[in-house]
Specification:
By secondary structure, this protein is α/β, with parallel strands linked by helices. It contains 3 helices and 7 strands; from the N terminus they run E-H-E-E-E-E-H-E-E-H.
């Protein structure tokens, strides 16, 4: 068998790691590890099915030049969105575009990175598995 890679982990530059850690924890990530320096130089966070690393930036990230968007899934979008609002975040109202008829929201992290969150419940997952001809992933 050929060698493979795994654990795809985006690495984002962040001006204030503590602030960004709090933001990603609000989204549902758990802080897994840091460099244990003061101030922090990097942090790794995991969520169900994903990970992100935050690296202390020396200069504000040039978000308009990044060309990247991050996308997550919530199994019950309306209460998830409300939890974000209650935590002081500013997600968009739920939108229902053709590509996401079950709903999606958008927000930006403290450094301006663009994050989408779509509703993805059991119904959406079952329909998707049927469409791709699989019984599980």
């Amino acid at each position: 068998m050929a060698a493979t890679a795994g654990w795809f982990t985006p690495m984002l530059h962040a001006m204030d790691l503590a602030r960004s850690i709090r933001f990603y924890e609000t989204l549902g990530f758990e802080l897994i590890d840091t460099d244990r320096c003061e101030p922090l130089g990097w942090a790794r966070l995991h969520c169900q099915g994903g990970a992100v690393m935050l690296l202390r930036a020396e200069h504000p990230p040039e978000i308009d030049k990044q060309g990247v968007m991050f996308y997550m899934y919530a199994d019950d979008l309306p209460p998830y969105r409300q939890r974000l609002v209650d935590a002081g975040l500013e997600p968009t109202e739920i939108q229902y575009p053709d590509h996401g008829p079950s709903g999606e929201i958008y927000l930006r992290d403290p450094d301006g990175y663009f994050i989408g969150v779509a509703h993805w419940g059991e119904k959406e997952h079952s329909e998707w598995l049927k469409r791709i001809g699989r019984t599980s992933i």
